[in-house]
Amino acid sequence: MRQQLVESKALAERWNQQRNRVGRLHYGSHVLIPNRVKRMRADHALVGRNSDDWTVGLHDDGERHLSYPNVLSTLQPSAVAPIMSRESGVDSYYGASAHPAPCWAELAGTVDCDVCVVGGGIAGCSVALHLAERGYRVVLVEERRVGWGASGRSGGQALFGVAAGQTSIETLLDADDARAVWDVSIAGLALIKEHILKYSIDCDWVNGQMQVALRERHERELHAELAALRGYGYRSVRFMPRAEVRSLLATNRYTCALYDSASGHLHPLNYTRGLAAAAVGAGVHIFEGTRALRFATAQQIEVRTPNGRVLCRHLALCGNTYLGDLAPTLARKIMAVATYIVATEPLGAERARALIVNNAAVSDMNWVLDYFRLSADRRLLFGGRVSYSARSAVAVPAATRARMLKVFPQLADTRIAYNWGGFVDITMNRAPHFGRLAANVYFLQGFSGHGVALAGIAGKLVAEAIAGTAERFDVFARIPHRDFPGGAALRRPALVLAMLYYRLRDML
Fold it and tell me: What is the three-class DSSP state of 251?
C-alpha cells in the first residue's frame, strides 16, 4: 500500500516543535561547535583539522492554474521529511552559533511542481518563499546545506545601493531605470526587517553601518556620495567628521565616515535558515545534498539531479558561482573571489563596547577593503583579505589577523577563535546580473558583495516576474554585462594583474 505524503504544513509544525525542544538545549550551552571548526592557539597557530571544503563547488496569483494535480505524488515521505541535525555544514563562527535546523533529505525520484529553484541561499529561499505565498508549488534543490554558500558565510552587513555605486548605474541605464534600481535596493533593506518581524527570524539584527575613509580622496568621495544620496531623497545617511568617528571607533585609522541608520548587520546563516523555515511553512519542499546537473528547456522543464529529476514550468537559478557547468553562459559573466573572516574570542561587554561604541557595522573605502562588526556574544568579526586565485591560502588567517591589528592594535593579546572564507560573485562592472536564459528560466547572480539586502528583494522580483509583473525585474535585466576576458584559461590571471593596480592605488 502506497504511503501518503506528509503535508508541508504538518512538516513545518513538526520542525517548529523539534526546533523549540532542541533550541532550549542550544541556548543553555550558548554555542554549538561543529566537528571541523578551525581554532587558533594562543600563539595563533592553526589547530584541529584544516578544511578547504568551502572552496569546493556546490552550489499573481493569476497563474495558480499552473499547478500539477500530482505534485510530489511520486515521492516517498522519507524524501521530504526533515532529519533533525545539529550539524551546521558550515565551518565558521556562524555555523558554531547557528540555531539548530532540519537536515533535508536528498531528492530521489521524480517530482512535479510549478517552479524549481536551484540554490539554498538568501536569493533562492526568497524566490521560493514569495512564490509559495502566491500559491505556487515550489521545489528548492541545494547541493550542500541551506546557507552553505556566501549567504551563510558573509560579513553580515546589509547595505543600501549596489556594489557598483549609483553613479555607475546612472551611466549604464537611463535616469528612470537608474532610479528604479536605487528604489529596489532600499526596498531590500526594508524587506529584511519585514521578514524578521513577519516570520520571527532570530538573527541578531542591529541598525547602523559606517563607511569609513582613510585618505583625503576618500573624504571627497564621501561628500560626493552624500550629495548624490540627497538627490535621491535618502535621508537616513549623514556625514561624520573625524572627531565623531574617533569617539565611536577605538582607532586612529579613519578620517571621516558616512553613517546610515537604515543599513545594519545580522547573523547571515540564521537569517537564511529563517527564510528557509518560512518557505517550508508556506509549502515549499526543500531537498539538500541535491545538485542540479543539467536542465532542458521547454514548456515543461526537466531538471536532472544525481538520483532524481524535477519537472517544472519555471526555473530560477540562484547558485551564483556554484552553478558551474549547469549554466556556462552565466559563469562567463562572473568571477569567484575568495574573502576571509576571523572571529575573536568573546571580548566581554565593556571591551567590545569600547571598540565600536554604537555597535555599527563598519567597512572602509579601499578596493581591498576591511570590514568588521561585533557579534551578539561580543566577539569582533573582521574580514577583508581577498584572493583572486580561487584557492585557499594557509597564511590567510594570520594575514587577516594582522590587518585587524592595524585597525585595533589593542587586540594583540586576543585569541582568534574561528576563521573561515567563502566566494563573492563579482561582475566586470560590479553591477548585479539578473535576467532570463529562456522565457521561463530566470537567474540571479553578480551581487558583488552586496547580497545580504539585495538578494532577498531580488528573489521577490523573480516571484513577481513569474506571476506576470516583471517591470522591476526587467529593469535589472537591462543592465549591460560583459564576459570576463581571457576565456577559461586566462580570465583569472588577467584579473589578478588588474587587481595589482587597485592594490597599489589603495596605498596612495
Answer: coil
Query: Looking at the predicted structure, is the pLDDT value of residue 207 above 90?
Result: yes
Least confident of 6-15, 319-328, 340-349, 361-370: 6-15
Question: What are the angstrom distances between the C-alpha of 193 and each of 30, 131, 156, 232, 452?
Answer: 25, 19, 14, 22, 12
DSSP state of 253: -
Residue 170's pLDDT band (boundaries 50, 70, 90)?
Answer: very high
Q: Which amino acid is residue 334, in one-letter code? A: I
pLDDT in tens, 240-272: 999 999 999 999 999 999 999 999 999 999 999
Give, for 229, the enclosing helix (H) or strand (E): helix 216-231
Cα separation, 94 vs 162, whole angstroms: 24
Most distant CA atoms of the chain, gap in Å: 75
Q: 314's torsion region: left (phi>0), alpha (psi -120 to 50) or beta?
A: beta
CB 258 within 8 A of CB 222: yes
Q: Reduced to 3 DSSP states, what percent helix, strand and coil does the chain have, rounded to the nearest 5?
A: 40, 25, 40
Whole-number Å distance between alpha carbons of 187 and 455: 11
The 10s digit of each residue's pLDDT in 334-350 is 888 888 999 999 999 99
CB 341 within 8 A of CB 400: yes
DSSP string, 297-310: -SSSEEEEETTEEE
Give per-residue pLDDT as tens, 478-497.
999 998 776 665 555 655 55
Within 10 angstroms of residue 297's Cβ, the number of other Cβ atoms is 13
The strand pairing partners of 362, in sequence order, are 210, 372
User: What is the grid cell recorded at 288?
Assistant: 539538500
Angle at 35 between CA 30 and CA 36, to 5 degrees: 110
Residue 223: all three cell numbers together = 561628500
Q: What is the pLDDT of residues 144-154, one digit of tens each?
A: 999 999 999 99
- Cα separation, 171 vs 348, whole angstroms: 47
- 101 — phi, psi (to 5°)? -140, 155
The predicted pLDDT at position 349 comes to 97
Residues 6+ apart with CB under 8 A from 473: 434, 442, 461, 462, 464, 465
Please give the Cα distance from 262 to 52 (Å, whole number): 36
CB atoms within 10 A of CB 409: 12
Output the pLDDT for position 398. Answer: 87
Mean pLDDT, the chain, whole residue set: 81
Q: Where is 74: in which H helix or E strand?
A: none
Q: Which helix (H) or strand (E) holds 441?
A: strand 441-445
Is 205 in contact with 199 (CB distance < 8 Å)?
A: no
Q: What is the 3-state secondary structure (H, E, C) of 452-496?
A: HHHHHHHHHHHHHHHCCCCHHHHHHHCCCCCCCCCHHHHHHHHHH
What the block records as the C-alpha cell of 16 is 517548529
Hey, what's the cell of 125? 529561499
